[in-house]
């Protein structure tokens, strides 16, 4: 298996991929005066600026064991209904390039003091220097008891380019705090009382996560040619993540204690520093770089330490023409995690009858430091041998051209030798090979002033992994019209109708903020959700309203989205966006 993966990597890498920074390539403005926050049209702002709330906790460590790929939901309406809640790994902020200073402001608020603030600032400090700053804050008192959360992300990027030297400084910082209630202890009050009366398993538990990620890239161009640039580059990157879990009443929900039965304070921190150097070549249609890198990481867990030194190869390539783009990134570990591989390929093609997007992701990954060994009050483990898991994802979508916007998409993920937290430890001998295939078809069309969107998805999973609905139907009906003859004031209102078929629930472990696949799990799903929305556009000002889970007025309040977590009640949100160009 390892040899096959290595051959595939070398073939793909030798062919083509994307140099994602592209600092030395000619740039054009990515936004103009008609750009609106996040780049979305009026008919999508209620979803983009205020994603659906649900009662699932964070799932912070979910990406560490392949479930994020397996549970990936590609919902055309943006509602990740069978996925997880507000805390995912922070994505890189898109870099906005504008000749004028730009501020994009979005704010929404709703019940239980729920707020969502998003601000992005972009300015060309000089013809050769660009600054981008992005800040996002989400907070709420929660809807179940003891479910308060606060999430803060900030990202600053500074880019300077000239003929012979270019540099990029990218800094991210995140601070997250959320209460860990462990879900409902019983649901008898849900039918007759508001959800905040329902008792929960934990009343005084809390998780705090802090993350920092700082990278600095430098490029030295040795070419005097304006069209072709070549030379050497260097990159330094520092990353740190710290998690703290506290519980003043640890006897709730568990009876296993390794340290203290009166109070829990679990903590770990993983930090790494990377330095790399290599060669790059850049032209109008083709870019490539390749580097040798050294990384040192250290893990501290309740004053226990272990560390590792790694040496790895990395490369990025790009080939692009007017109607064709092929991107690839490649990583291969030589020392420290020998044989570990990551290769991500993206293809975009604009053909006469349709547009095609395709991807191929290949991973051969060893356990993370957190998975290798961990000491806590209620859970302890140490893996005696380290074996990599193989995760392969193949997918894409095809969109037909014409007045009717329609197309199909496929995503297939296979996890071999997967690492899952089962029976209080990380195991690779329980689920064996897991496969998940998602096939979806979508169509958007207009009937006069009515705009209709339909997305039908089928999830075909292996028998050992039935944790997502087999059928998801998402439909949006919107009425769009100008309010006055001048058409400067526009309105959009309508309904979202969504159906989820049955799926098996997962077990959430608040002490570690992770999900565990259950054998003999309860079946849930098989319900319809209805949301109402409205939006008004008075350029460049937008106001939106969204009533989520209107269907809770008639749905059974005891429906579970996962083990011990009920369906979200009615939630009303108001929001505004405003774009400023100086």
From TrEMBL:
Keyword Signal part of the UniProt annotation: yes
- Check the record and name the Pfam families matching this protein: Porin_10
Q: Give a yes or no for keyword Signal in this entry.
A: yes
Which keywords label this protein? Signal
InterPro entries in the record: Porin_10 (IPR025631)
The highest taxon in the source lineage is: Bacteria
Q: Where is the signal peptide?
A: 1-19
The protein in question is named Putative porin
Q: Which organism is it from?
A: Lishizhenia tianjinensis
